[in-house]
Amino acid sequence: MRAAAVVSVILGIARGLMALGFVLVMIVIGIMLVVPRFAPVPVEWEVDAALLGVGTHMTIPVRFYVDTDAHRITAPSLGAERAELRDTYGSLRFPAPQGSFFFINAAFLIALFVCASWGLEQLHRVFGTLRKGQPFIQANARRLRRVAAAVFIGELVRASLVAFNQYYAKAHFTAQGLLFDWSFNIDFFAVVLGLIILAIAEVFAVGTRLDQDQALTI
After folding, report:
1. Where does the pLDDT of residue 37 fall: very low under 50, low under 70, confident under 90, or very high at 90 and above?
2. What pLDDT does residue 45 have?
3. Domain coordinates of the chain in residue numbers?
4. How far apart are CA 135 and CA 141, in angstroms?
5. Burial label, 84 (beta-carbon count in 10 A; 0-12, 13-18, 19+)
6. End-to-end CA distance of the chain
7. What is the rounded CA–CA span in Å between residue 120 and residue 15?
8. 101: which of 61, 66, 79, 208 lies 20 to 30 Å off by Cα?
């Protein structure tokens, strides 16, 4: 039970951090709407989170190939006369564009924070019942299924956010010797984690039924 209490505290802190992140994004949106109207000159400031930047610049994730004709890669000691850099990932910093691009990124981040907060809330309630010594209740199986759903949805939103930014870079930027590209990649680990949580939810459902049957036979 002591371990459950510790995990419950950690989950509470994580929920607080998600709530703080949500509030900060909303504040940033407000600043981006207000500052350009009242600042007499552009303000040189930036918050760089690799996915969301505010101020005069922003930084986004990118995927690119290196043009082998422009940048020849060889390994004479290995006898390789031609090698390729493929599926290379990095971050691209550039002056923040006017329009909807920033706000679309902010909407993605809000969705991620909401999804994470919802999943953490369900998990926190599960550990609350563990602390009381009553884990096998019907609500816990539903809560764990919601946690699994939060994992799946969160990963889908994350992959969509990265793909959106990569596609934006491909559509708007050019670089000598580099070929920007984009892809929609779902993290295999996140999918496996969601499936494991679903399996645990079914264990709780079966345990609840057995617990109820045992209570009826006494």
Report:
1. low
2. 46
3. 2-39+98-217
4. 10
5. exposed
6. 26
7. 6
8. 66
- DSSP letter string, 164-214: HHHHHHHHH--BTTEEEE------HHHHHHHHHHHHHHHHHHHHHHHHHHH
What the block records as the tokens of 39 is 């600042």
Of residues 63, 24, 74, 85, the one with CA closest to residue 163: 63
d(CA 12, CA 199): 24
Q: Which of 95, 90, 70, 83 is nearest to 178 (CA)?
A: 70
Structure tokens at 167: 């596609």
Average pLDDT of the residues of the chain: 80
The two beta strands, 57-66 and 88-95, are antiparallel
Contact 42, 57 (CB under 8 A): no
From residue 110, give the alpha-carbon distance in Å to each of 20, 124, 148, 184, 197: 11, 21, 19, 20, 24
CA distance 169 to 100: 15
In whole angstroms, what is the distance from residue 122 CA to residue 141 CA? 10
- For 36, how many CA atoms within 13 A lie in the half-sphere containing its CB? 12
Tokens of 213: 């049957």
